[in-house]
Each structure stands twice: as C-alpha cells, then as structure tokens.
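Subject: Sanity check before I submit

Could someone independently write out the structure tokens for this chain? I want to compare against mine line by line before I put it in a report. The sequence has 584 residues.
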Amino acid sequence: ARENKQLVYCHFNLVVTVDVKADLQKCTNHLENTFGRIGIQISQRAYNQLELFVSTFPGNCYSLNKDYDRFLTLSDAAGCLMYKEKLPKSEDTPLKVYYTDRQGVPVAIDISGKEGKRKLTDNSNFFCLGPSGSGKSFHMNSVVRQLWEQNTDVVMVDTGNSYEGLCEYVGGKYISYTEEHPITMNPFRIQREELNVEKMDFLKNLIMLIWKGNSAIPTKIEELLIEQVIKEYYEAYFVGFKGYNKSQIDALHKKFLIETATEGKPTDTNKEVEERIWKKIKEMEDRRKALVVDELSFNSFFEYSTERIPYICSENKITGIDLSSYNYSLSEFYRGGTYERTLNENIDSSLFDETFIVFEIDTIKDNKTLFPLVTLIIMDVFIQKMRIKKNRKVLVIEEAWKAVASPMMAEYIKYLYKTARKFWAMVGVVTQELQDIIGSPIVKEAIINNSDVTILLDQGKFKERFDDIKAVLGLTDVECRKIFTINRLENTEGRSFFREVFIRRGLASDVYGVEEPRECYMTYTTERAEKEALKLYKEQLQCSHQEAIEAYCRDWSLSGISKSLAFAQKVNNAGQVLNLKQNK
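---
Independent answer below. Compare away.
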C-alpha cells in the first residue's frame, strides 16, 4: 500500500484428465510436490465441483466465493501465474508453408520470417542441421514443394538423389553429372552489361580455384594479376585494344621515369631516356593489340592469359609467380584436356525458364577438382536467375556447400548470402555433420551469421556435445529445452508419417510437425526399396509419376500393411503391380 501496488483477488485452478485406468492420486501428488518446491501449496478441497469447473472458463473465477479459493495478492505476483502459452495459429502472410502443431492441427507459417504481417527477420536465408535419419530430406522436400506451388523458382544442389521424386512430380529439370554427359557451362560468355565487380570477382575466384585448389589462400599479387588479365580479356573482346589513352600514357611515362632514375646510367641524356620510355610504351601497345579475342570461352581465356601474364610480370617486374603451375593446372579444362567440355559448352538456355531445377553431383563429390568448381558455377547460375527474374527464388545447397567452404570462397559465399535478400531470394544450406558447424569458422562467419532462420531436426545423437552447437547458433536455454522434446512426445497415435522440426525465425521459435499424406511420402522417399517399387508401378502401368504414386498408395492402403518399407518389399518380391481390390 505504501508503494501504491495494485492488490487483486485471484484464483488459479488445474483441470487434470487421465485415463480411467490411470492413478489419479499419483498425478495430483506430482503436481503438489512440483508447486511445493516453489512455495505454492495446492488446495484439493472440492465440495462444490460444478462451481470449480465453471470457474475454469476465462473470466468466470470472479463468481467464486472469496472465502472459498480466492485470495488477495499483488498484481505482479498474480500475473506470474497466468497461463501464457497458447496453441499456435496460422500467420497472416502471403507465403504459407503448412506444418502441424504438436497435436496434429494444421498451421501455416511464413518460413521466410519477413513476408508476413508480423516481420520476424531481416533476411530469409536459412541453415538446417539434422543427423542422418532425422527426416531432414523429408522436411526440405515438403518446404520446397510448397514454395514452388506459390510461384517460387527453386534451384537445388544435391549429392544424394533426395529430390529426384519431387523433381519428376513437378516436371522439373533433373541434371546429374556423368562422364558421358557432364554438367557443362560457359561462365565466360556474358553480355557487356553483365561485366560488373561481382562478375569479375566470381571469375577471379573460379580461376583461383582451378589454379590453387580449394584450400590454398592466394597472395595479393596473384589476385591483382588475375583481375587485370580478366579485365583486359573482356576489353579485347568487347571493344578491342586500340592503344593507351592519355592518362594511361602519363602514368606509364611517370613509372618508367622513376625506374630510369634508379636503374639508368649517369651518362644517359634526357633525349635517350625519353626515347627508351616511348619505345617501351610502343612495344607494350603492340603486344596488346596483337592479342585478339574472337569468342568468349574458357579456351580463349586460357590462350589469352597464358600469353599475356608473362608480359604483365615482365612489364611490372613481378617475381615469384609460378607460371608453369598456372598453365598446367588450367590446361585440364582447355581444349584436349580431361575436363575440356566443362567450361566451354553453353549451359542449356531453357534453364532460365525452368522453375524447378535439381543439380545432382553425387558422382563427383570426391573429385577435388570438379566438385568445388561445378558447385561454384551452379551458384553463379542462380545469381543470374536471381538478378533477372522478378518472382521469389530459393537456392538450397545440401552437402555440396562443403565444396566451397574454404578461405578463398568465404567472401563469395558471404556475398551470395547478403545479395539474395535484395532480389527477393533466399539461400539455405543443409548439413548432417556436427563437425561442419563447430569446426569451420567459414560456416560460422559466412553462413550462420547471415542466416536469420535456423532449422534443427532431432538432435538426440548430438545431446552429449550439444553445448558447442548451442554456443555457435546462439540458442537460449528455453530453446534448447524445446529442441530436446523433438519426436519425444506421445503424439503419434492415429497420425500419418511425420517428423518434428525446430524452427527459429529471428527471436521467435517453436517446434512444428512435418506431416504429409502417403502420396507425398512416396514422392519424397529416399529409401531404395520404396523407389524401386514405385518405379515398377510406373513402368508396368505406363503412366505418369503422379498416377503411379496414386495407384501405389491405393494398393498400400488396401494391403493393411502400416509400414511403407514392408509394403515396398512385398511389391518388389512379387515383381509386379499388385492391383488389390476392396473387400466387400
């Protein structure tokens, strides 16, 4: 009263329901002990049960007799015991990705966190971690399908055929790398208006990746050298070198005067010095004029750079550049080399108009030369798509992101993450290795720090080492407790196949269920036996992918077998479509 605190009469009650065979006394004793530990004594008086039950309705406790179970306390204390949690509701957003709450009720959320009425994030990039078998691919299939259905262009880089079924269902483009049909692109073939700082950085990183590999860090001189060669290469193609302009000539003249002052003979006259300087400048101009670029490809760049770099080094007195290693490393991708087609054949022009593309590069995941290179080029393809197309775009990089997670590529990944949000695009990486996030500073700096959406599947396998993940991802104790309830509740009865997932968007986080019908499960499955059984249905029925799934799921339901794998094995053992009939 002295501090003008508000005093209120309040009442709190608990309604407990248990199975008829359960021990009610054991439940109430547990509640009494729990509240007793924080100094709250529960009353079990119940001489008027109807009155108590009616008082559980919101606002009805005032009808209780104040001498019965209403007590006087401070409003602050009373507010602390209010039941703050509620069942999640669908969000007011144009981008709806459907999950279920923990009771199985459908709920739609804005997975980007920034398109809804309530803005939760600054960017929609995401990071997904889940060990093998946690339902990671099942969840990502569900998300990208719903994004695609809402006019989103989807580009995926995969290394395990996780999205083959979905790609076939939506009629997308599935591109897999084989020696007979490699993924070929021509990153050097661009329009003049595309020649900007970002494109120059990409091409520089591409050349450095071929020359130095995925782990070496190039020197400043090497980077400047490659940048200059790329710039001159495109100048030679687009406008042709006609000679130095006045400012360039003045700069060269000044440079050679300084060199003459330090290296010339004392007997040299001004006229002799000037003659030598102008002779040098004329020789430099003639050499550049002689270098002509007729077409844009890796082949023409290789020819231009191997001839031009020695002159640049000589003209600028640069030493320590290993030109033989440069020529040898790049020759693998040159005409007649092992990978001559990879960087010299134009990518399928229809890819720009495709709305669902999967690049499957599992066959080259152990190739230290090709794997990072192809991944990098695919990312650049997405950037071109991202810049030009006006609708929403998403790039999902599965385990392939490790190919470019090197010090050399960290800045490029960071650029990709920061640029995407400006063009209504989102970029996400998906991994199943704990060490990937706790052992790589690049992942933390370039990926995690630029992802406002964090997605975690069942982390039970990482529980003993979860402190490291908690620190890297900046998880709170409350969020950690939520995470360790994933797939632990007794909420599976009567429900179709589902997995639970923790999603944090900005500061908002919750656990949702990924629950799909059998038709979707068969579209997403990565189980070999199930894929073979579905393939058998499609071949024998001579029908579309969707019709094969519908026929398969119809027979599955009629079989009475609950487990998909058991039914798939039955189909494979029979070697034919079952065509089961409804029992009358």
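---
OP: Matches mine. For the report I'm noting this point. Residues 270-290 form the longest helix (21 residues).
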